[in-house]
């Protein structure tokens, strides 16, 4: 992008689709470093709450203690509170053993199988001390009660006489420490493609050639209109930068009939959350975290040590 | 697409049939019938360890009766009226005796409490103790205990369904075929041997042509060699001092006329010319008649170390010729004719080989080999033990009878109820040392522990064939892949290194035969026009158009129309009139028809084709699908038959129906069945470079996963389990057949083939930390430790006491329960005590009552968990049982859950192993615009030199599989028959789901967010975690223990030993000139020692602390002493030399 000489940008976000744990938005007027920073923060640094300590009283199930503890840890918990909670290592009120409401949430699980049927112990059986932090409910309200989704996440299955009794403590954490604290299932972005069809050259193609050109793309980017005999771009974002169309055009002896460029200053983000926080909230939290991180850098501006540490870079950061 | 096409064509079929009905019925339609369904049917009916089970069932069902019947009487040589006769034998239900009560046992019980899974051998006897000549009968006398093979006909698991097996604590997928001896699972390896009772023509070391026969009868095993040396033919038999002219032997057997011998060998003048020198030699020795020959041979006999009982009347030579020389040819009433003809045939084949080198036998040819399976080996062992017991019983009876005064009445029964048989069987199977003196068999390492690291390892040990040759031999012949192994032995599964090519594995459908009764076959042969040997003159024997008929190496007679005879026999076999496993083989070259019914031959099922048209039609397969047919009904209806390696030579086998021509006699069932169990796991093995498949066969056995459905109930010394094993996305038919999809050993990892971070060179892989957090490659290691509560001879015994809850040791006893044992579920750290045991101080001498002992009479013998820092585990289970000597034994399973760390070993299914090079945060990992982020990154340099194209296709197929939701197949050679998806169809699926047809993706860097320059080949590949983990190997030390004798650091990780600066490391340091470093490493940090040396005599003295100076004990003075430093090992050497009268003197000079 030769036109941009200054690094000063005014990035803008345009939400396209927001659906609970899924959202899609455009990030414009910035470059890859910004987009990637946002992505990385969403994956690794937006805090959530997850079970971190498990105290097992009775476990006569087939799975061993560590196994169950690991499974419990991976259950997403609703973490709207997470941003305002304290990390247990920074908590002054307690030493992180679950006695303190500022940094931890306590859970109890007490299940025993009495019947002949195998009993599924699920995330629904976890009793929370804080109703705002509970296992994520994937239930689709439209589905019936006995649909598999409504039963929660299976922790272990019990046979007659087997029992599981435990106390678990959930804490705030970030995905960098353990993937269980990552609120993001999928965070990805792509450069927005710019597709340019050389109409003059396109007209030299026969309808059959046009059709094969359209079909050469593994994703449905183009469409061939039978009536107008024109190749149309229906969904540029379906393009996966596979260059199949361009290769096809070259093979047909018409290079340049379609040209595709990536717009280097606009990105299309797709965010799916684990359910711990809403996808839209995830984006906002990520921006917050990013801001805090930048603030942390700026804070060091005042200190003398920072100058020693960063030297010229420090001066540069201050805009000098 | 192959599957879809088939699917469509089946549906189209009925319409076609209506339209062109007549044509369809009349024309031999070359439409391939999918015969695959036969394979699961076969395996379902026979099991995965069928070779072992069949042979064991045959042994306990039939063979044992024969053995007992052949040796059924014990008769005293002193008193004719004292005898015992066995009338019947059988094997009872598996049981054990606890406090004189017989209790039935289950295999899993035996595994847990270190018992032997065995059943009593019961006999019915009739006997007479000599008193009053009354015959007494007694039934159900136990003469010993027979270890029972799991899943055999005498096992409690036999015929049980899945639920019943689960109740018995048994895994339904376990193949059985092994024994449980003292709690350990032992399998008797299949032994490969040269066939018995067959003439083998080959050359000795000097290049002389020889014919050898290894005879094996119920009585003896002998080896007869006839060799041509300097144009004369000699017999080598170890009863004779040296070589014996063969013509003399012929004369001794009554073949006095030279003419007849020549006739028997054949009248071809070339044969006459070859045999002439031998005849002349015989004449020159002055041997013309049988008597002269016998006298000549008598002189050649080896001296017997002790005079044995032999028939004095006819001389020893006669009995040797009758019973030892080619023992498999029986001599009745001193009629040696059959033996003479046999020798003549041997001579004839030798001469043929001399005239034409091509007729030499190939020792490595699979048809000349026999596989001895556990049943055969056990029967040999049992026979020996049974005979020994009878002989001993006879000896004891004779000794007791010879004693003048007998206090008690003699009871013959008591001599046969000793436990020599049980002990012998148990010891042999548990040590693996077969010592059968009767047959001069001394073999080691015949049994092996069933490997339980993975399910595949357990299966692999069932099909393993151990070689007869010693491994040191440098010949390549036996190691090479033999074309005759096709379909019988797996071409891939062999170890690397010294036993490469010698240790083999059975293929998927191989069957190993058991012995069949010869009687009916012999009479059938005569009925079908075989001319009896007895009625033939020597001249008639080798008529140009006549074929000799041999049954199991014995000459039955001759037949003029061998092909017709063979066809008739085969027809009868297909009709079920003679056993399925009898092989009929017409050898045109040797003018022989070989019929074999002996055990140990390898054979495999094939579809019969008439003039190239398969007998199996669509309707048969449909019936099979509907459950109307079974595999056995296919056999019974003559649609399928078993061919052994020899008979395969008479068959023309087409790979597919479409390849069949007019001459085709058989069609393969499925080509992938040429591979064994281990090689069957590899997807697309036919696209890989062959050694890669061999490597995977070795590595598949080290992969962690589920080992059995009862894995959490097992108490093995070491168990490796994977926390979340998966079923491979790209499966093969073999995987389904052996249920690897139920007991998997690996996980489907999304692999990106690219370079990343530089920590991926030399096959290392980069792993995604988030994947590891979520459970990828996480494994459970369980180790067993045992403590025994010993009882001592004075009646005192160890005791387990309540732990101290406070005081000095209390923190080490935190995990103990009030009963003094570690509580299950507790976290155990190094040095934690897991059993608070005390032992009495006095364990010998007079009997004491343990209740009288005071606390002070006991000393601590606590056991604590050993393991280096950080190796914490959890107590998984504690089991108490009594061991064999009645002591209480307490077993602890200690469990560790490990997540992958840098240095752990992983491997794909294509012989591509690598260690984890680094672990990277997910956000730094590359990602695609769909949001796919790989679990691990593999360096592309792994591909060009390895040429594992199969791995690439696995990636493609796996990717297509996850996109379309169908498991894809990659069976060996399966593209043709629809058992493997083609790259073409996979690519189509990929494109359908919006991927590039070549499997490459457009990827962004996770660090910069910029797109990567190249498209990256990415998709799921099944990865195995191998048992080699850094945690078990990592080792370093500073100061530490030293060996007492040399005062040098100990060796090995387990002893916290030092790292040796060896010879070559030393050489490097010398070359570099780092003399002080050498001094430091080899002396200061190892075993420095200060000695007093006498300058006068040069010997070592000592330092006297009284006089504060060194003193030389030789010179008796301290005048000329010097102090110097030596390695302690050097001082030791000097003293050791002195102790053997060598005086090393040190000469000191000022430096």
From TrEMBL, chain A:
One of its GO terms (cellular component) is RNA polymerase IV complex. Residues 22-300 form the DNA-directed RNA polymerase RpoA/D/Rpb3-type domain. It comes from the Eukaryota. SUPFAM superfamilies: Insert subdomain of RNA polymerase alpha subunit, RBP11-like subunits of RNA polymerase. HAMAP family: RNApol_arch_Rpo3 (MF_00320). One of its GO terms (molecular function) is protein dimerization activity. PROSITE patterns: RNA_POL_D_30KD. Its main location: nucleus. Belongs to the archaeal Rpo3/eukaryotic RPB3 RNA polymerase subunit family. It is found in: Nucleus. This is DNA-directed RNA polymerase. GO terms for biological process: transcription by RNA polymerase II.
UniProtKB/TrEMBL annotation, chain B:
GO terms for cellular component: DNA-directed RNA polymerase complex; nucleus. Residues 842-870 are annotated as: Disordered. The keyword RNA-binding does not apply. Its main location: nucleus. SUPFAM superfamilies: beta and beta-prime subunits of DNA dependent RNA-polymerase. Residues 47-408 form the RNA polymerase beta subunit protrusion domain. InterPro entries: DNA-dir_RNA_pol_su2 (IPR015712), DNA-dir_RNAP_su2_dom (IPR007120), DNA-dir_RNAP_su2_hyb_sf (IPR037033), RNA_pol_bsu_CS (IPR007121), RNA_pol_bsu_protrusion (IPR007644), RNA_pol_Rpb2_2 (IPR007642), RNA_pol_Rpb2_2_sf (IPR037034), RNA_pol_Rpb2_3 (IPR007645). GO terms for molecular function: DNA binding; DNA-directed RNA polymerase activity; ribonucleoside binding; zinc ion binding. GO terms for biological process: DNA-templated transcription; megagametogenesis. Residues 194-372, 448-512, 549-609, 631-663, 1057-1147 form the RNA polymerase Rpb2 domain. CDD domains: RNA_pol_B_RPB2. It holds the Pfam family RNA_pol_Rpb2_2. Belongs to the RNA polymerase beta chain family. PANTHER family: DNA-DIRECTED RNA POLYMERASE I SUBUNIT 2 (PTHR20856). Component of the RNA polymerase III (Pol III) complex consisting of 17 subunits. DNA-dependent RNA polymerase catalyzes the transcription of DNA into RNA using the four ribonucleoside triphosphates as substrates. This is DNA-directed RNA polymerase subunit beta. The lineage of its organism: Eukaryota, Viridiplantae, Streptophyta, Embryophyta, Tracheophyta.
């Amino acid at each position: 992008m030769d036109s941009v000489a200054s690094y000063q940008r005014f990035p803008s976000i345009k939400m396209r689709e927001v659906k609970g744990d899924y959202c899609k938005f455009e990030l414009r007027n910035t470059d890859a470093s910004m987009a990637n920073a946002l992505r990385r923060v969403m994956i690794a640094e937006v805090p959530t709450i997850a079970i971190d300590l498990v105290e097992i009283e009775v476990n006569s199930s087939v799975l061993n203690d560590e196994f169950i503890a690991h499974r419990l840890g991976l259950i997403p918990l609703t973490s709207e509170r997470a941003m305002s909670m304290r990390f247990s290592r920074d908590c002054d009120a307690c030493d992180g053993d679950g006695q303190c409401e500022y940094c931890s949430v306590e859970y109890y699980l007490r299940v025993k199988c009495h019947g002949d049927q195998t009993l599924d112990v699920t995330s629904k059986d976890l009793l929370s001390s804080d109703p705002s932090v509970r296992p994520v409910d994937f239930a689709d309200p439209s589905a019936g009660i006995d649909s598999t989704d409504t039963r929660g996440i299976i922790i272990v299955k019990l046979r007659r006489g087997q029992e599981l009794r435990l106390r678990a403590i959930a804490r705030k954490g970030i995905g960098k420490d353990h993937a269980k604290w990552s609120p993001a299932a999928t965070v990805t972005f792509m450069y927005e493609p710019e597709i340019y069809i050389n109409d003059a050259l396109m007209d030299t193609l026969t309808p059959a050639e046009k059709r094969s050109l359209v079909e050469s793309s593994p994703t449905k980017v183009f469409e061939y209109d039978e009536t107008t005999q024109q190749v149309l771009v229906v969904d540029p974002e379906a393009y996966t930068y596979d260059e199949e169309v361009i290769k096809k055009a070259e093979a047909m002896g018409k290079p340049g009939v379609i040209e595709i460029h990536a717009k280097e200053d606009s990105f299309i983000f797709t965010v799916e959350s684990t359910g711990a926080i809403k996808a839209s909230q995830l984006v906002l939290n990520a921006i917050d975290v990013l801001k805090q991180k930048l603030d942390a850098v700026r804070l060091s501006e005042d200190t003398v040590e920072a100058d020693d540490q960063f030297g010229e870079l420090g001066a540069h950061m201050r805009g000098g | 697409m192959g599957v879809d096409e088939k699917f469509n064509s089946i549906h189209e079929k009925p319409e076609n049939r209506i339209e062109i009905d007549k044509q369809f019925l009349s024309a031999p339609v070359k439409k391939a019938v999918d015969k695959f369904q036969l394979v699961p049917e076969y395996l379902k009916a026979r099991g995965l360890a069928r070779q072992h089970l069949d042979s064991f069932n045959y042994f306990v069902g039939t063979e044992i009766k024969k053995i007992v019947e052949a040796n059924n009487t014990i008769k005293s040589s002193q008193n004719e009226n004292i005898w015992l006769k066995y009338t019947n034998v059988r094997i009872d239900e598996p049981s054990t005796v606890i406090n004189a009560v017989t209790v039935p046992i289950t295999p899993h019980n035996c595994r847990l409490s270190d018992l032997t899974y065995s059943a009593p051998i019961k006999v019915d006897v009739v006997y007479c103790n000599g008193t009053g000549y009354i015959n007494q009968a007694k039934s159900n006398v136990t003469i010993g205990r027979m270890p029972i093979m799991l899943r055999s006909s005498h096992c409690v698991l036999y015929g049980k369904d899945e639920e019943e097996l689960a109740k018995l604590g048994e895994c339904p997928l376990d193949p059985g075929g092994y024994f449980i001896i003292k709690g350990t699972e032992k399998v008797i390896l299949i032994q490969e041997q040269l066939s018995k009772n067959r003439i083998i023509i080959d050359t000795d070391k000097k290049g002389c042509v020889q014919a050898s026969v290894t005879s094996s009868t119920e009585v003896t095993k002998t080896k007869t060699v006839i060799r041509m040396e300097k144009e004369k033919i000699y017999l080598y038999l170890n009863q004779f001092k040296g070589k014996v002219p063969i013509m003399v032997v012929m004369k001794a057997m009554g073949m006095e006329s030279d003419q007849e011998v020549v006739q028997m060998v054949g009248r071809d003048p070339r044969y006459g010319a070859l045999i002439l020198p031998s005849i002349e030699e015989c004449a020159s020795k002055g041997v013309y008649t049988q008597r002269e020959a016998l006298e000549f041979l008598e002189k050649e006999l080896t001296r017997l170390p002790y005079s044995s009982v032999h028939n004095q009347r006819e001389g020893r030579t006669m009995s040797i010729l009758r019973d030892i020389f080619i023992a498999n040819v029986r001599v009745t009433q001193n009629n040696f004719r059959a033996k003479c003809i046999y020798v003549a045939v041997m001579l004839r084949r030798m001469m043929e080989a001399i005239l034409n080198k091509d007729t030499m036998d190939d020792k490595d040819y699979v048809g000349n080999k026999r596989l001895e399976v556990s049943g055969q080996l056990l029967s040999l062992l049992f026979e020996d033990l049974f005979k020994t017991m009878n002989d001993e019983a006879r000896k004891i009876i004779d000794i007791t009878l010879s004693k003048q005064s007998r206090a008690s009445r003699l009871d013959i029964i008591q001599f046969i109820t000793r436990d020599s048989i049980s002990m012998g069987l148990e010891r042999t199977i548990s040590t693996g040392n077969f010592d059968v003196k009767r047959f001069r068999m001394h073999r080691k390492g015949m049994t092996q522990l069933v490997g339980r690291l993975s399910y595949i390892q357990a299966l692999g040990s069932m099909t393993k064939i151990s070689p007869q040759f010693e491994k040191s031999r440098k010949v390549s012949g036996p190691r090479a892949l033999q074309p005759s192994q096709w379909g019988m032995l797996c071409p891939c599964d062999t170890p690397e290194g010294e036993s490469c090519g010698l240790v083999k594995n059975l293929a998927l459908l191989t069957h190993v035969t058991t012995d069949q009764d010869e009687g009916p076959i012999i009479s059938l042969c005569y009925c079908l026009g075989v001319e009896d040997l007895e009625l033939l003159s020597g001249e008639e024997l080798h008529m140009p158009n006549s074929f000799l008929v041999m049954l199991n190496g014995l000459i039955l007679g001759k037949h003029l129309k061998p092909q017709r005879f063979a066809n008739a026999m085969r027809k009868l076999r297909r009709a079920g009139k003679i056993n399925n496993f009898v092989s009929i083989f017409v050898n045109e070259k040797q003018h022989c028809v070989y019929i074999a019914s002996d055990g140990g031959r390898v054979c495999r099922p094939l579809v019969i084709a008439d003039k190239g048209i398969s007998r199996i039609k669509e309707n048969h397969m449909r019936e099979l699908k509907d459950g109307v047919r079974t595999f056995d009904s296919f056999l019974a209806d003559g649609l399928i038959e078993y061919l052994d390696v020899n008979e395969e030579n008479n068959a023309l086998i087409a790979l597919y129906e479409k390849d069949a021509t007019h001459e085709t006699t058989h069609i393969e069932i499925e080509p992938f069945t040429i591979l064994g169990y281990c090689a069957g796991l590899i997807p697309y093995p036919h696209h890989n470079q062959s050694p890669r498949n061999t490597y995977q066969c070795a590595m598949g056995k080290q992969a962690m996963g589920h080992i059995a459905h009862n894995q959490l109930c097992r108490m093995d010394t070491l168990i490796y389990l994977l926390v979340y094993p998966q079923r491979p996305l790209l499966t093969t038919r073999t995987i389904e057949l052996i249920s690897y999809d139920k007991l998997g050993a690996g996980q489907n990892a999304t692999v990106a083939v690219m370079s990343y971070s530089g920590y991926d060179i030399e096959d290392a892989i980069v792993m995604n930390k988030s994947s590891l957090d979520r459970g990828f490659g996480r494994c459970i290691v369980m180790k067993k430790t045992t403590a025994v509560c010993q009882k001592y001879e004075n009646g005192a015994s160890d005791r387990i006491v309540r732990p101290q809850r406070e005081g000095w040791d209390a923190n080490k006893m935190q995990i103990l329960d009030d009963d003094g044992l570690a509580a299950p579920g507790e976290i155990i750290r190094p040095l934690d005590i897991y059993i608070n045991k005390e032992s009495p101080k006095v364990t010998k001498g007079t009997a004491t009552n343990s209740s009288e002992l005071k606390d002070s009479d006991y000393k601590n013998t606590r056991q604590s968990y050993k393991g280096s820092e950080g190796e914490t585990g959890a107590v998984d289970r504690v089991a108490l049982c009594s061991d064999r000597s009645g002591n209480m034994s307490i077993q602890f399973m200690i469990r560790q859950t490990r997540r992958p760390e840098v240095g752990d070993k992983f491997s794909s299914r294509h012989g591509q192993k690598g260690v984890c090079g680094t672990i990277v945060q997910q956000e730094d990992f590359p990602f695609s615009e769909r949001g796919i982020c790989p679990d691990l990154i593999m360096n592309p340099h792994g591909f060009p030199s390895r040429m594992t194209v199969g791995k690439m296709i696995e990636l493609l197929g796996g990717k297509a599989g996850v996109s379309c939701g169908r498991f894809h197949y990659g069976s060996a050679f399966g593209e043709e028959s629809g058992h493997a998806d083609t790259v073409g169809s996979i690519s189509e699926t990929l494109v359908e789901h919006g991927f590039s047809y070549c499997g490459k993706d457009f990827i962004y860097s996770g660090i910069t967010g910029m797109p990567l320059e190249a498209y990256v080949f990415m998709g799921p590949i099944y990865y195995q975690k191998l048992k080699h983990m850094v945690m078990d190997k990592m080792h370093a030390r500073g100061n530490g223990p030293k060996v007492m004798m040399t005062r040098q650091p100990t060796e090995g990780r387990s002893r916290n030993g030092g790292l040796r600066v060896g010879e070559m490391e030393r050489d490097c340091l010398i070359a570099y000139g780092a003399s002080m470093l050498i001094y430091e490493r080899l002396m200061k940090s190892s075993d420095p020692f200060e000695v007093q040396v006498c300058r006068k005599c040069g010997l070592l003295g000592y330092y006297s602390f009284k006089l504060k100076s060194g003193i030389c004990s030789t010179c008796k003075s301290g005048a000329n002493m010097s102090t110097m430093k030596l390695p302690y090992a050097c001082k030791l050497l000097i003293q050791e030399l002195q102790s053997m009268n060598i005086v090393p003197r040190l000469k000191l000079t000022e430096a």
